[in-house]
Each structure stands twice: as C-alpha cells, then as structure tokens.
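Hi all, posting the design record for the shared folder.

TITLE: backbone redesign
STEP: 1 of 1
STRUCTURE INPUT:
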C-alpha cells in the first residue's frame, strides 16, 4: 500500500511529519495494507472540508475528517488503484487538540487514523463502536509515536 500525504492548507513544516503519519495510517489499514493500492490523506482548511461535505454528503457544516472508499476496479493491469481518500481539516484539529488534551500532531494523526479505520471497514454509528474505534486509533498513535 502506498500512502500519499498532501498538505493543501498551511500546516506548519514542524507538523509535516509525513513518514510518521504514513506509518500510523498503514497500521490502521490492517490486512488491507498488503493491497497493491494507494490511500490519499489530504489536509485541507475549513472552506474545503465544507465544500466536500456539501458536494458529496449534502452536509452543510464543517467536520474534522471525511473518508471515501473507492471500489476495487475489475482490472488494474498491475497498476496501483485508489483504495480510498481521507480529508482532514487541519484547522479543526488545531481547535480540538486542547479539548482532548492532545498535541496538534496527535490530533492530526487521530483524524488520519480514524478515516483510515473507516476505509478498513470500521464504523462509529453507535457509542460502543465509536469507543472501540477511538481506543484503536489512540493505541495506533501511541505505538507510532513511541517508535
């Protein structure tokens, strides 16, 4: 699995820990990380996450993260195919980091990992599902940052 990280907003250079984020995303993808595919993690601003919400989900509000699975093509000719896209709102991560007692980097990683867990098939429609997802994401981030 190839993990592409794109910064389409003003994420400070000291937070552009691309390799660290890639490692956490791969861990979140579990067995899917062996696919000959790619995942795009895109850090965007509030205006862009709102535009995506309106255009694709008919939501008229800003969210922290949005993920889109892509269907596996019937024929790839050995080329990479897009497994999914995760859009992370960097501004929301900055705002929420204090509320959750995280650093900015941890909060950015939380959203990237959360979206990747969705790509891997996890849901958070109920409080128990959300708690399980959050616990898994926090464990992945802790392991990744530990080394």
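Okay, here is what came back for every position:
SEQUENCE:
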């Amino acid at each position: 699995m190839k993990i592409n990280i794109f910064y389409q907003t003003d994420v400070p250079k000291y937070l552009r820990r691309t390799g660290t984020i890639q490692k956490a995303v791969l861990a979140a993808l579990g067995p899917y990380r062996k696919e000959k595919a790619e995942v795009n993690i895109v850090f965007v601003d509030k205006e862009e996450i709102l535009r995506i919400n309106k255009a694709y989900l008919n939501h008229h509000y800003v969210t922290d993260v949005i993920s889109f699975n892509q269907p596996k093509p019937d024929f790839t000719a050995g080329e990479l195919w897009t497994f999914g896209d995760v859009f992370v709102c960097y501004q929301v991560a900055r705002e929420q980091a204090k509320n959750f007692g995280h650093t900015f980097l941890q909060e950015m990683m939380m959203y990237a990992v959360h979206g990747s867990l969705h790509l891997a098939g996890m849901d958070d429609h109920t409080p128990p599902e959300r708690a399980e997802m959050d616990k898994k994401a926090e464990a992945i981030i802790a392991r990744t940052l530990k080394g």
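COMMENT: The mean pLDDT is 95.
Let me know if anyone wants the other runs.
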